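Researcher: Can you fold this with magnesium ion in place?
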Amino acid sequence: MRSPKDFFAPLALGAPAPLREVPFRPSRMIHFFDPSNERMRAKVPDIAPTVDVLLGNLEDAVSADSKDAARAGLIEVGKAWERGHTQLWTRVNSLDSPWFLDDVWALCHEIGDKLDVIMVPKVEGPEDIHYVDRLLAQLEARVGIEQPLLVHAILETARGVANVESICLASPRMQGLSLGPADLAADRRMKTTRVGGGHPGYLVRTDPVPEGDGDAGDGARTAFQQDLWHYTLARMVDACGTAGILPYYGPFGDIADPVGCEDQFRNAYLLGCVGAWSLHPSQIAIAKRVFSPEPAEVAWAQRVVTEMGDGTGAVMIDGKMQDDATVKQCRVVLQLARDLSAADPELAAAYGLETA
Ligand code: GLV
Ligand code: MG
C-alpha cells in the first residue's frame, strides 16, 4: 500500500509533479477523427476551432493495417498544433493490443508537449491505470515533458464497471471517464447491435386491462422505452464525483438520428456528465447545445443565488421553495456557464456574463 503522502509524488525521477485538481476545461464534445485519413487530416485546421476537444483516434474503427499510418498522421497533426482553447487528445490502442506501447512511446516522444489527455480504452481495473501511470511518468522524465499527461478511461467491460470507483481513484492523472456502450454491450452479452442509444425492445408496459373494463386488450396497454445506459451512467457519475474527475457520455452511432442523439446527450447532461463524443461534424452542434446550460436556466440560477443572499434559509420564488440545497444546484449551473463563457464570447453574451 502507498502512503497517501506519496500520492502526489512523481512516479519517476524527473517527471513533473501530478496535478492536485483536474483543471476544468470545456469539453462538451470530444470530436473523433481518423488521423490515417489524409482528407480528415487536411480538415483539422478548419474543424479544430469549432470543437472543445479534438481527438486523434488510433483504436477501434482504424483498421489493423492503418495503425502505423494513424499514429504517424496524429504526430503530423500534433507537430503543427498550437495550444489554445481547443484541447488535443488521443485514444490509444488497448493495453492488450500489439500497438499500445508503440502508440504511447511515439506520441510522448514526438508530441508529448502538445497532448492534453490520453484516452485508454477497455480499462478493467486500477491495475491498468497504475501501469499507464508509471509508464507515462517514465516517458515524461525521459522526454522532458513538463506538464503531466492526463488519463481518461473508457468504461466498456463488465469488470471495468464493477471496478469503476477504484479506476477513478487509481491516480491523480485521472481526468475522466467515458461510457463505451458498444464494447460494453458486447462484453456484457447484451443483445443490441448498435453504438449507444436506446432499443425499441427494452420496454416497460402497463398492466393488462381486465375484460369488461372498456378498452380491454393489449392495444390499450401503453409501453415506454427504457434507457439501457441509465445504470452505468449513474454509477459513472457518482464514481467520478467521488474522485473529483469528469464523466462523459460516449458515442452515439446513428448519425442519421440527431433527435435520438440529442435525447441521449441531454439525459447524460442532466445526470451530471460534462460532454459526449462527436463522431460526425453534425454531432458537434448537438453536443454544444446540450452541454451548455440554457440562457433561461442561467438567468434563473442567477436570480435564486441573488435572492438567497448568504445562501442559507429559505425563500419562495414564483411559488417554488428555494433553500441551501437549491442554491447549491444553481451555483453549479452558474459556475458551468462562467467556465464555458471564458472561452466562448457568444455564449457569454447569451448569458449576460463578462468574458475575461
Ligand atoms: C466505444 O469505444 C464503445 O465501445 O462504445
Ligand atoms: Mg470501444
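Model: Folded with magnesium ion in place. The radius of gyration is 22 Å.
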